[in-house]
Design a protein that fits this description.
The structure is a homodimer. By secondary structure, chain A is an alpha/beta fold. The first copy, chain A, has two domains: 228 residues, Aldolase class I (TIM Barrel); 77 residues, no CATH class. Helices cover 44% and strands 15% of the residues of chain A. Chain A contains 14 helices and eleven strands. In chain A, strands 1-9-8-6-5-4-3-2 form an eight-stranded parallel β-sheet. Chain A has a three-stranded antiparallel β-sheet with strand order 7-11-10. Chain A starts with a helix and ends with a helix. Chains A and B meet through helix 7, helix 8 and helix 14 of A and helix 7, helix 8 and helix 14 of B.
Chain lengths: 317, 317
């Protein structure tokens, strides 16, 4: 059920993409998602080319199914990561934070699908014009880095769908079958899910991080660092300090000084979920249990079918 | 199609509520929406009891169908508005900004349904425990006053649905059939729509206001006044001054001074859409035309049916 044109485009069974999250999305998660019928993504964002190559080879040992790489284009290693992706022959590259134009031809020549992540319809249309095969439209409820316009998924998806002729993948606020079906109703041809995949057995992130996501509740994430860029994370001690600084009008430099280096690693690797940055989507309040990536995908697909049949009854009433 | 239990509860044909918007939702809009099969609401928020009574009587001359009143409970005239609503025998009262507990028994004794507007699941559960008949769960993409937690509709609705046993009405980010169907997929039994009804012939608001909403685009609304409370409005000259003040850490008093009195009237009645507050939802980018309330409702219902049939084909593929 719900086999959309995105499935055909990417050669996958279910239109579910696992977000490429720095410090989380390594070969264990990526291969598990792809093997379960979705599209797993490795997070290229904090890897060297060689590290990415090693991860790709690990994925290939675990699944013959398609998988991809997420590459934020503003990072200095972006060129390297693109080269390795082509050399190793991955199925899809998801680009963000920069223009994909430079890479679309090379990707297509190499038989790789290129998908660009956009926080608004204007950038999505620009990416489509640059030749990408699909766009991810990501709402501000998503964890991690977001667009400065802070458009929500509900408002964003139909506006992007109206602007581009390629498949739109909805991201932000989706963790179960209800979000999945809502995304399709809004006109998306699939979903990209991040936070729900952090709380899987296969996510290679510190157990404290997973527990923090499970415990966060409906109101526990905040936007911090608006002076630098929009980031959604858990409201912990570090976030409170940042919010307090912003409230009294602290500038870019002071905010940078408060953050300092390595906050993401501190949470993700060391497990310090009070003094590290815990990237987390607002939908975390809906997540209560660590499961396998396969269970997550199966529950979404089976749940969406049941939900659809329920709506059908309402419709026929 | 899509006749839900909310329709039974409120005695309406389609599960579409028109938001009770101050300076916008008077008898013309309210009666048109109810006559077209939805539930029209009068905005009690800036009226005296006598003014409300006059509006109610105008509605009754125009439709025999159910309609309701929106009453923000923090306003000094709330008691008066409740009294008039009971005396005049309206069908439903929508409360917000305060606890509905004080009024539930009186409403039920008078045969009036009471629905409470909540920005998070905790307050929704509290309202349900207080005996309301349904809740509106309103995401931060909505125009006007929002909850301080800034939860988006996509993240909010399923979390509220999981917490209460009464019908949930989704609000925020809904302007067409896609948003309507997405809301039902998320578990809502109906929708409350504000911004799309501002841009109707029947909305009694200055033409400049309607034009500003039509022109706003996807990135033209902002949250201002976080020091006082969360308000979504159009990014005009007034909003820019507020944002600038917030950025440099201005406190509550300075922000209040910048706002000064009568900003809402200045936009809604005088039509000054640069120096007045233009309440507007983020979904305005999707709205390109002024229509009648009836057209809006019919397009949503017919569109949702077509959309559903389309998804059915995907499902059967």
């Amino acid at each position: 059920m719900f086999r959309t044109e995105l499935c055909d485009l990417l050669g996958i069974e279910y239109p579910i993409i696992q977000g490429g999250m720095a410090w989380v999305s390594y070969y264990e998660l990526c291969s598990a998602v792809s093997e379960a019928g979705g599209l797993g993504l490795l997070a290229g964002s904090r890897m060297t080319g060689d590290e990415l190559r090693a991860e790709i080879r690990q994925v290939k040992e675990r699944t013959k199914k398609p998988f991809g790489i997420n590459i934020p284009l503003l990072r200095p290693e972006a060129d390297d990561l693109v080269r390795v992706s082509i050399e190793e022959g991955v199925h899809a590259v998801f680009t963000s934070a920069g223009s994909p134009k430079k890479y679309t031809q090379r990707m297509h020549d190499a038989g790789i699908k290129i998908v660009h992540v956009s926080p608004n319809a204007t950038l999505a249309a620009k990416a489509a014009a640059a030749g990408v095969d699909a766009v991810v439209a990501e709402g501000v409820e998503a964890g991690g880095h977001n667009g400065t316009d802070e458009i929500t998924t509900m408002a964003l998806i139909p506006q992007v769908v109206d602007r581009v002729d390629i498949p739109v993948i909805a991201a932000g606020g989706i963790a179960d079958s209800r979000g999945f079906l809502a995304a399709l109703a809004l006109g998306a041809k699939g979903v990209q899910i991040g936070t729900r995949f952090i709380t899987t057995h296969e996510a290679r992130v510190h157990p404290n991080f997973k527990k923090a996501v499970l415990d966060v509740g409906e109101t526990g994430t905040v936007i911090t660092g608006r002076a630098l860029g929009v980031v959604r994370c858990i409201r912990n001690r570090l976030a409170e300090r940042l919010l307090e600084a912003e409230k009294r009008g602290a500038g870019r430099e002071e905010v940078l000084e408060i953050i300092g280096p390595g906050r993401s690693e501190r949470a993700s690797i060391e497990g310090d979920v009070e003094e590290g940055t815990v990237y987390c989507g607002q939908i975390a309040g809906l997540i209560h249990e660590i499961k396998s990536a396969k269970e997550v995908i199966q529950e979404i697909m089976e749940g969406a079918e049941a939900l659809f049949r329920g709506l059908e009854k309402t419709a026929a009433r």
